[in-house]
Design a protein that fits this description.
The structure is a single chain. With 300 residues, the chain is α+β, with helices and mostly antiparallel strands. α1 crosses α2 and α8 packs antiparallel against α9.
């Protein structure tokens, strides 16, 4: 009896604590995103890589209610690529143009051409403080893994190797995964050389995940770096939208905007970017929402 390999995230100590790795299998996450948004091959690769990286960053958060949002705006025809992860590694995302298609000019999908590289990767961490942390870096290539590596190195001052991969065949996500390797403060020169010499082994992460899956990939990729698995986390595609959240968003538009919706549109329709769920509000719904919010002093 075959057992379906489950997506997951591993936190791994390397070289007796001189470096660390976060290793992820995200095949089902990316397939779910593809199904929800009807993504083309290129859009699946672009969003899948971003979802994978963002989920790994979510796994680094400490507080239960914290979240991280990664937004890539490279000026390419795919438009914005955006992903959000909670500390529980539930991740969601979207691209502006899910049907993007470009001619293949080599063995790999032209993700960089779709994303573009004339813009920025922005990372917003909501750590439940007064102001969120915001970090931005100019895009290196639009291939996404290199851009996240630049973010960690430049914005968080943590030299990092990042590998992200999505393999799509016959309309199905065959495999997807990611690896972040980071040197810890005080790492020896020998440790630094060992990590740098290993970079080439990490490049085909989707191929490694297809053949070995998450647990097998630990030894396949990291055995020579003395890996010690510290923690295993589940990762899943999940949207936390609700009618109540949409109502709160409508209230933030203000009394004037709500009144205009009632009088001119006689209702409202709101679609969730992340899961495509549609919320409909009749004229009476909006009148009741306006009245309740006014009574509570929630409207400006």
């Amino acid at each position: 009896m075959s057992v379906m390999n489950q997506d997951g995230i591993l936190h791994i100590s390397l070289l007796e604590g001189q470096a660390r790795a976060i290793l992820t299998e995200s095949t089902q996450v990316v397939q779910r995103a593809k199904d929800i948004h009807g993504l083309s091959k290129i859009a699946t690769a672009a969003l899948g890589r971003t979802l994978t990286a963002t989920a790994m960053m979510g796994s680094m958060l400490k507080g239960r209610d914290e979240s991280v949002t990664a937004s890539i705006k490279g000026g390419g025809p795919i438009g914005t690529v955006l992903a959000v992860s909670g500390a529980d590694c539930s991740v969601k995302g979207y691209v502006d143009n899910p049907a993007i298609d470009l001619p293949r000019t080599g063995p790999k999908l032209p993700v960089g051409a779709a994303v573009g590289k004339s813009g920025r990767l922005s990372v917003i961490k909501d750590l439940r403080l007064r102001e969120p942390y915001v970090g931005q870096v100019n895009l290196v290539s639009g291939e996404i893994a290199e851009d996240f590596a630049m973010y960690f190195t430049a914005s968080e001052q943590t030299p990092s190797l990042v590998s992200l991969g999505v393999l799509v065949s016959n309309g199905k996500v065959e495999s997807a995964g990611g690896l972040i390797v980071q040197l810890m403060p005080g790492a020896s020169e020998a440790a630094i050389r060992s990590i740098e010499a290993s970079a080439g082994m990490f490049m085909d992460i989707s191929g490694t995940m297809k053949e070995y899956h998450l647990d097998g990939a630990v030894n396949q990729l990291l055995l020579h770096l003395q890996p010690q698995v510290l923690e295993r986390r589940d990762v899943r595609y999940a949207c936390d939208c609700s009618r109540e959240r949409v109502e709160r968003a409508l209230i933030t538009l203000g009394a004037e905007e709500l009144t205009d919706m009632i009088q001119t549109q006689h209702g409202a329709q709101v679609d969730c970017h992340f899961c495509n769920k549609r919320y409909r509000f009749t004229e009476d719904n909006l009148k009741a929402l306006l009245a309740a919010a006014s009574a509570k002093g929630e409207l400006k």
